[in-house]
Structures are given as structure tokens and as C-alpha cells.
């Protein structure tokens, strides 16, 4: 009898120990659980490749994906959604990484595992690291901090308050920013127009080391004997700008490549007058290999998106407003040397689509 009692006691004791250990393990797992708002990284290169492949196959980016379908897939509540035209700001990693905005904040989403995390920035993605917010304000996603150019550069001669519609080009950590002078009434051309309007000043600013320089087109290409000329500049390399020098009287435009490192013109050629790049364009982003430009036409309501082949000197229309769909672009960014993403809004359909394009599909 005593033997049976002792045996029961021993079994009960062992069960209590097992139960206690299982509770401790459960608590430890709960404490180490990865939050749903954090994107977990793949553990191996093979896993990473499999993740990207799944993302590429889930959505047909080539033929376009509705913004609504992306938000549905990520389980973004209807009541949290912004207007479609302002919901998505950039797409990377062949469609796996998406930056989006909701009423509650800014987010980075992963398509492969349907994870969404909150981020501190939202704007026009210049590349994976830098984002243009507005005015002279940028964001560094690696350092996780804002870059306010007005705190670094003396811009007392230029408009910095309530500035909208600044033209900002980007290439290899550098931005070329159009500057609006406060002294346009003081600086006149010999033929009576504003010098800063016909031949504007630009600020070249390095987002990485904060170095900068001002570029005055009036010092490079201003011809006081020709009242019909004007010029604009875009950044095509970290140390090179393309100046479109226009003579309106004869409807001709010349491309002038100016090397900022040696302060000299290194190349000139005729630019097709009908190209948008021959006139005032904005927000040019150079491809990672430096061979192509993505940009839109400057103006109050820019709607069309263009691609320019620097070597072949050809321009292609990516988003054409003059179609039955009446499309206007919503965002654009390079994903790799030969792939870019862009969004379009169709006015008649009242819906947004996101596309991925390879260069050989445009040229």
C-alpha cells in the first residue's frame, strides 16, 4: 500500500515539474515573439531569392496592378485609406517593397510576407536611401534623420518660406535644386527681362557629406546680344549638368554638357525642339548606371512622364495624357539599372495602377 502511495506521489511530482517547465518555455517564446509590425529578415540567401520570386509572381506588375488590390492584399482597412492618387509613393525590390501612406501615418510594406511597419517619412523616393519631402527638406532612411538644407546653406537671397513646386533632380547622393531669387527686380538682362528667370541659379547639394555649390547659368551661357535666349539645367551625373540652351526666335535648342569638376563645357549637340527635355522639365532622376533619365514636364499640373536615353539622345513618352484613358503619373522611381516603377491615375476610370517597366519595353 505504501509502495503505491509513494509511486503516485512520484508521478504527481514529475507531472508538476513538466507542467512548470512547459509554462516557462511558453512564456519565453511569447517574450521573444517578433511583432507583426516588424518585417523579419530571411535567414539565408536562398530564402531571400525565394521571397523575391514569390513577390514577382504574385502581382503582374508588367500589365499593371490596381492600387486597390495592393491595399486589399495588405489588409489596409477601408477607413484608413487615403485617396488612391496619394496612397503609394514608391516601389522597390521587383515589387516586394512598397512605401504607402494611410490616414494614420506612413508605412513600409513587404508583399512576400504581408508585413507593414510604420516609418517616419513619406515623399518622393530618390532611391532606396533618400526621400524628398518638400521645399528644402529631405530624409535619410539609413541614418533615420531629416536633412534640412536651409540649416546648412545660407539661402538668404532665395525664397525658402512656403516654397512649393521646387524642381529637384537626383544622381548619386546629390540633388540639384532650382532656386528662386528674391532679387529678380534688381538683376535685369540687357534686353529688359529678369536674368534669374531666363538663366536661373541652381544649388548642387550632397546629401551624404553636406557639401554644396551654387551654379549660375547666367555665368555659363548668358548671351547679352541675343534677347531670345534662355536656359535650364538638369543633373545627369554627380558632377555634370545638361544645359538646354534655347533660342526661341529660330526654335532651336542646344544641349550643353557642363563638367562641374573642371568648370568647362565638354560637349555640345543639337537637341530636338519637340523634346520635352529641350524645354523646362522637373524632378529628373538618373538611372543607377547613369545612362537614362526619368522626368516630367515642369508646370502647375505636370501629368506626363518621360524617359531620355543620354547616349542615343532620344526621348520616350512613358505616361501619355493624350489618350482615351487620360492618364497622369502619380510617382516614379528606379528599381535597378534597367527597371523602374511608376504609378498612373486614369481620370475616366477613376482608379490608380502601378506598373513595372524594363527599358527594352519602352525604347
UniProtKB/TrEMBL annotation:
Keywords: Signal. Residues 1-30 form the signal peptide. This is Lipoprotein. It comes from Caloramator australicus RC3.
Amino acid at each position: 500500500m505504501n509502495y503505491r502511495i509513494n509511486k503516485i506521489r512520484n508521478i504527481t511530482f514529475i507531472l508538476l515539474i513538466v507542467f512548470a517547465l512547459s509554462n516557462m518555455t511558453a512564456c519565453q517564446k511569447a517574450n521573444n515573439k517578433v511583432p507583426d509590425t516588424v518585417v523579419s529578415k530571411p535567414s539565408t540567401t536562398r530564402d531571400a531569392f525565394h521571397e523575391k520570386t514569390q513577390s514577382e509572381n504574385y502581382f503582374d506588375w508588367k500589365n499593371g496592378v490596381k492600387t486597390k488590390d495592393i491595399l486589399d492584399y495588405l489588409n489596409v482597412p477601408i477607413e484608413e485609406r487615403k485617396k488612391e492618387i496619394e496612397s503609394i509613393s514608391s516601389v522597390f525590390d521587383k515589387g516586394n517593397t512598397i512605401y504607402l501612406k494611410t490616414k494614420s501615418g506612413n508605412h513600409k510594406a513587404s508583399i512576400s510576407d504581408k508585413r507593414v511597419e510604420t516609418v517616419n517619412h513619406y515623399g518622393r523616393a530618390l532611391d532606396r536611401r533618400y526621400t524628398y519631402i518638400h521645399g528644402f527638406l529631405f530624409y535619410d532612411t539609413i541614418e533615420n534623420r531629416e536633412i534640412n538644407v536651409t540649416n546648412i546653406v545660407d539661402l538668404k537671397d532665395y525664397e525658402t518660406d512656403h516654397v512649393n513646386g521646387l524642381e529637384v533632380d537626383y544622381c548619386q547622393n546629390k540633388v540639384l535644386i532650382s532656386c528662386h531669387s528674391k532679387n529678380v527686380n534688381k538683376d535685369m538682362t540687357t534686353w529688359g527681362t529678369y536674368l534669374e528667370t531666363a538663366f536661373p541659379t541652381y544649388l548642387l547639394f550632397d546629401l551624404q557629406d553636406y557639401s554644396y555649390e551654387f551654379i549660375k547659368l547666367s555665368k555659363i551661357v548668358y548671351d547679352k546680344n541675343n534677347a531670345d535666349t534662355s536656359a535650364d539645367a538638369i543633373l545627369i551625373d554627380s558632377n555634370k549638368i545638361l544645359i538646354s540652351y534655347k533660342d526661341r526666335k529660330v526654335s532651336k535648342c542646344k544641349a550643353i554638357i557642363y563638367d562641374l569638376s573642371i568648370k568647362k563645357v565638354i560637349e555640345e549637340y543639337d537637341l530636338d525642339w519637340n523634346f520635352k527635355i529641350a524645354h523646362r522639365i522637373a524632378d529628373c532622376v538618373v538611372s543607377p548606371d547613369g545612362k537614362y533619365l526619368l522626368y516630367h514636364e515642369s508646370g502647375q499640373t505636370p501629368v506626363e512622364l518621360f524617359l531620355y536615353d543620354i547616349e542615343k539622345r532620344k526621348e520616350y513618352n512613358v505616361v501619355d495624357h493624350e489618350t482615351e484613358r487620360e492618364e497622369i503619373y502619380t510617382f516614379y522611381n528606379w528599381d535597378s539599372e534597367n527597371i523602374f516603377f511608376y504609378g498612373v491615375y486614369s481620370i475616366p476610370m477613376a482608379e490608380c495602377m502601378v506598373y513595372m517597366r524594363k527599358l527594352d519595353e519602352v525604347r
